[in-house]
Amino acid sequence: MPKKAKKIWKQVDQYFSDALIAPGEGFDSALEENRKANLPSIDVTALQGKFLELLVRATRTRRVLEIGTLGGYSTLWLARALPDDGLVVTLELESHHAAVAKKNLEAAGLADRVELRIGRAADTLAALVNERAAPFDFIFIDADKSGYPEYLRWSIELSHPGTLIIADNVVRDGEVIDPASPDPNIQGVRRFTELIAVEPRLSTTVLQTVGMKGYDGFAISVVL
Asked: CA nearest 71: which of 124, 114, 120?
C-alpha cells in the first residue's frame, strides 16, 4: 500500500477523532494501561469503538457477547452503550489480558455491566449454550481469525432473530482474496465467509475500512 495513502488515512482518522470524540470520552487511559502492560496494539480505533457504541444504542441492545477481550478497550465502548441493567459477556483466552481488562473496566466505572470469562472461546461458548444462556442482541467477534468459523456457529446458537453479529478484521489488508494464502488467519476468514454465504439464517454485508490501523473491514450480519 502506498505510504502516501496510509499517511492520509491516519490524518483523516485523527481529524475526525479530534472533532467527534471529546477528550476523555475515548478511553485513552485504557489504551495507555494496555501499552504499559505490553498488550499487542490491535484494539479497534476510537472511531470504530464509537461505531460499535452507536450500533448498540441504535439496536436498543441489552445483552452483548464479545469474543476477544484483550485489554477491554472495545468492551468499554460496548458497555457504555448499554442501559443500567444491560450486560456484556466478554471472552478472553489470556489471564494477563483479562486482568488488564478488569482494571480498565473498574477505572471507567463499567465493571458492573461486564461479565469476563477466561478460557478458550470455543469452550466458553459451548458452556454458554449448555447453561442455556439467554440469547444475545449483539455479538462482536474480534479474536483469532482461524477460529472465526467455529465462533460463527456458536454465535448463531446464542442469537435470536434480529441479533446483529459484527466480525472485525475480515479484509486483512486485501489478502483475503488470495485462496492460496498459507496464513491461517486468511484461511479462517475465507471459511467464515463461505459459511455466511450459504447460511440461510443470516443476511450479511462487508464494509471495507481504512484508517490508523491500515486497510481492513467489518462483516455485518443480521439474524433472520
From this structure: 114
With H, G, I as helix, E, B as strand and everything else as coil, classify residue 42: coil
3-state helix/strand/coil string of 139-185: EEECCCHHHHHHHHHHHHHCCCCCCEEEEECCCHHHHHHCCCCCCHH
Q: How many CA atoms lie within 13 A of 155 on its CB side?
A: 34
CATH top-level class for 3-223? alpha beta
Neighbouring-strand partners of residue 138: 64, 164
Cβ–Cβ < 8 Å for 72, 101: yes
Between CA 32 and CA 68 the distance in angstroms is: 19
What's this model's pTM, rounded to 2 decimal places? 0.96
As a whole number of angstroms, the distance between CA 156 and CA 89 comes to: 16
Every domain of the chain and the residues it spans: 3-223
Q: Using 50, 70 and 90 to split pLDDT, how confident is the model at 1?
A: low
**How big is the chain, counted in residues?**
224
pLDDT tens digit string along 63-116?
999 999 999 999 999 999 999 999 999 999 999 999 999 999 999 999 999 999
| Tens-place pLDDT, residues 181-207 | 999 999 999 999 999 999 999 999 999
Instruction: Return the C-alpha cell found at 20.
Output: 467527534
